[in-house]
Design goal:
The complex is a heterodimer. Chain A is 77% helix and 0% strand. Chain A is an all-alpha fold. In chain A, α7 crosses α8. Chain B has one domain. Classes of the chains: A mainly alpha, B mainly alpha. At the A-B interface, α5, α9 and α14 of A face α1 and α2 of B.
């Protein structure tokens, strides 16, 4: 590593330290520590929201999936922008912000708990976050650390330790202010790297039209030719096996949608597009961002910044992912991306190393490390507030300050997440699936209560609790016993019933959220209508200034 | 866009359309909500116990 690279790394770390210190200096009370005082700049808020949303796995993992399955993943980008930014900021942002101020709520579970005057809802939400988010955080930690290991040629455990200590420092000291300021810096780095990547890839494949128009030809030459090959003769997990599997699932090309209602179509639309695209609305670490600004103007401005940021992230990485097939075909002896890189998760790092100049690989490393750090810092903060403010403060002693309790909670949850990342450094399937599991759980459990809490005065505490319980039960059942990925990898169904899934056919490709969310919504509506309306005073407090 | 089929092409143009929607909405409403009351958060810490008591 050269002198210039060393200087850039030191400058980056020093800037993170400085921003953490700024957050620390500006943090005077628990509202500052938990929701950044409610006066965050829209640029910082939007970039923090986006950078938290986009982790390393969203760039590397989903980029690899785009190289495998193609541009049908652009449906997810559309949902990310339209639902995750436009709908979230325009329709949910301001009601969430106002409800938070009226109820003096500082966390997402606290917002729901106070809206329905229920300690159970707050504690249940906090426990859910504290139980499942560490798995999600461990997956992001492992992903970020593995890049450090490869680039700096260092020991995994040492890299993990250093990486965790750096993030712990600014999260612990600066609270949400520190987290959001560093997120904004990291978001800018990610944005610049992805714009560079797009231009360089189009340049490498001979231009926009030339690149896209070659996708069909490369599919025909490298994938369609596998049609006559028996799947049993291919090694499971090998590139040719994966490409053959995609054809079996109904995929017809990187520039085409899979056949309607085929396994591939259900996977792309229900698990990837709806599971992640809709699931984002109920992510606690993202919802709390709406409570960090002082008026609707900031949210309106953030729509513009957030929309551009997200298309530069997922839009570019999906397009680049599929176009890597063209580049590899032309420059690697007629092979496609998976055949050249060796696996879905290896495509983007391999492509950056062999197809891009060395200086860009260094910039891209920063973008990936920034993506991991921005997601992790927000996860650590959210988990800390969940275990500290939402669980400990509600069921334990209230004599300690919220800030102190949250700081202890953050340290505790970081230790748990890092321990998971230490133990599971070989990335067992359960860790790799934890993002999807967390998104499905959050959507099914929180979404009806969150929407009802914001927009439906008639929704009752009993309706909210029943909906959360049904959402939890159905999602857990579907993940453990039905869905083709989670049920198989968790192994409980196999252990109890001798089969990977209790059901068979295309239904096992349907995401847990698609089944659980309608049932939890229905439960919320029915139970609310048959139970006594909430106290008028509480409703006034929630909805009137 | 090259050889995109209807489904992928629709996703691509909806993606572009939603970005434009975000840009236009953000630009038009950049400073439009001046009339909305900015809720006071300055006394949060001081009033926290009182608010919790009321709830």
């Amino acid at each position: 590593m050269g002198l210039l690279e060393n200087i850039i790394i030191i400058a980056y770390l020093a800037t993170l330290g400085y921003l953490g210190f700024v957050g620390y200096k500006q943090t005077k009370n628990s509202a500052d520590y938990l929701i950044a005082g409610g006066n965050t700049h829209p640029f910082v808020m939007a970039l923090s929201y986006g950078a938290t949303f986009i982790s390393t796995s969203a760039i590397v993992g989903f980029g690899g999936v785009a190289a495998w399955l193609g541009n049908s993943l652009l449906w997810l980008t559309f949902c990310n922008i339209f639902i995750g930014i436009f709908v979230a900021f325009v329709f949910l942002g301001n009601p969430t912000r106002k409800l938070g101020v009226r109820l003096n709520a500082h966390t997402f579970p606290e917002l729901l708990g106070k809206r329905f005057n229920s300690k159970f809802i707050q504690v249940f939400g906090g426990v859910l976050i504290a139980f499942f988010m560490p798995l999600y955080a461990a997956a992001v930690l492992i992903g970020g650390t593995q890049f450090l290991v490869v680039y700096f040629n260092t020991d995994y455990h040492m890299a993990l330790l250093v990486f965790s200590i750096i993030i712990t420092g600014y999260v612990l000291a600066g609270g949400l202010k520190g987290v959001m300021l560093t997120d904004a810096l990291q978001g800018v780095i990610m944005f610049v790297a992805m714009i560079f990547l797009l231009f360089m890839v189009f340049n490498a494949v001979g231009g926009v039209d030339a690149g896209f128009s070659k996708l069909s030809m490369v599919w025909d030459k490298t994938v369609a030719s596998l049609a006559s090959v028996d799947m049993k003769s291919l090694k499971p997990g090998s590139p040719d096996f994966m490409m053959k599997l995609s054809m079996k699932w109904g995929f017809q090309g990187w520039d085409k949608m899979p056949l309607f209602l085929s396994e591939g179509w259900l996977f792309v639309i229900t698990t990837i597009t709806m599971g992640v695209g809709v699931g984002v609305l109920a992510q606690p670490q993202l919802v709390v961002r709406f409570m960090t600004v002082k008026s609707k103007n900031e949210l309106n401005r953030a729509v513009l910044i957030g929309g551009v940021f997200i298309v530069a992230m997922t839009g570019i990485v999906f397009i680049v992912g599929s176009l890597t097939n063209v580049w590899y075909y032309e420059f690697n002896e007629g092979k496609n991306a998976l055949q050249s890189a060796g696996g879905v998760g290896k495509v983007i790092p391999h492509f950056i190393n062999v197809a891009m100049p060395k200086w860009f690989a260094f910039i891209f490393l920063f973008a990936l490390i920034s993506a991991a750090m921005s997601t992790l810092s927000s996860q650590f903060h959210t988990m800390g507030t969940a275990i500290g403010r939402d669980v400990f403060e509600q069921i334990g002693n209230k004599k300690y300050s919220s800030m102190a309790v949250t700081r202890v909670g953050i340290v505790l949850m970081i230790i748990v997440s890092v321990a998971l990342a230490y133990v599971f450094d070989k990335q067992p399937a359960i860790i790799a699936r934890s993002t999807a599991i967390f998104f499905a759980l959050c959507a099914s459990i929180f979404l009806p209560t969150y929407f009802g809490g914001l927009f439906w005065r008639r929704m009752t505490r009993k309706g909210a609790i029943a909906s959360m319980i049904v959402g939890t039960a159905v999602t857990t059942f579907w993940l453990l016993f039905v869905h083709f990925q989670e049920a198989k990898e968790l192994g409980i169904c196999k252990m109890l019933f001798g089969a990977n899934s209790l059901l068979s056919g295309k239904i096992i490709f349907v995401d847990a959220m698609i089944v659980a969310l309608p049932l939890s919504i229905l439960t919320a509506v029915i139970v609310s209508l048959i139970t006594k309306q909430e106290d008028e005073q509480l409703i006034k407090k929630c909805f009137e200034d | 866009m090259g050889s995109f089929d209807l489904g992928v092409g629709l996703a691509f143009w909806l993606m572009c359309g939603s970005v434009i929607l975000c840009i236009v909405y953000g630009a038009i409403n950049w400073n439009k909500d001046k009339e909305e009351k900015v809720l006071d958060t300055s006394s949060w810490d001081k009033d926290e116990d009182k608010i919790n008591e009321e709830l």
